[in-house]
Fold:
Amino acid sequence: MSAQAPYATLSPDRVLDAVAATGLQPDGRLLALNSYENRVYQIGLDDGTFVVAKFYRPQRWSDAAIAEEHAFAQELAGAELPVVAPLAFDGETLLRHDGFRHALYPRRGGRAPPLESREHLEWVGRLLARMHHVGARTSFAQRGAIDPETFVARPAQAVSHSSLLPARLHDRYARAVETVAQAIAARLDAVGPVASIRLHGDCHPGNLLWTDAGPHFVDLDDARMGPAVQDLWMLAADEAALDALLEGYAQFRDFDPRERALIPALRAMRQVHWAGWIAARWHDPAFPAAFPFAAEPRWWEEHIDDLHEAADALA
Structure:
């Protein structure tokens, strides 16, 4: 397995063999699903049903950290929350085959969430409050937190060490990151300490699917410790939408209103992290194909301008 191309040997046959090794019977139908950090496939079974196989990116998470993700998903599902949890085989959810770590999930389809409706936003807010009630029971020991070190310092270092960033922009990028990092730190200090709980961590509309029965959450791969508002702000298109989410949320759990002031800092951290994520993964052939704009100097110029705008907004 090459560190430069970690999925080069993950052939369709190997994927099907990994599923068959659990005792399930694949019928040969295999569909690659939209995922870049990991590799995810929908697999048809002989009985007409489907499972979803998720192959973890090597060296990203430790076994213990993945076990925490799985246990959290199972805890949420056990609390009758609409979260897709991994399947267990002989009591194990983290599986291994031919050097790859993977997990199998029941397939739960759905469509894009109708978040234009206040009724639906309140519904999602109630579910998130119940999820956070479970998340606050204990802490992650292995999965880290949503903090400036993880979401600013490390991704910025990945960009600085990447050939994607043109040499003439290195100093400008460094100044932009320093400026936004200082603005983020000032905002965090101004808000003060807030409760840190186990979160979905990447709760954007793409990880919330809707069916006739209502919403369900998928993909806890970025579950971390952090403030409750992290799971709310990406689902809110504007302040009115956030108000609706919080109205539903308040029916099941108290929300610290100071956390609303964290949103610009969390948004800025996500901007820095996203560019660093692309830079750190550029050796994976899927990334140049999916994000060709990152090879263009103009995009990095715009990213630097965006970071300064984010710092100005925080100030």
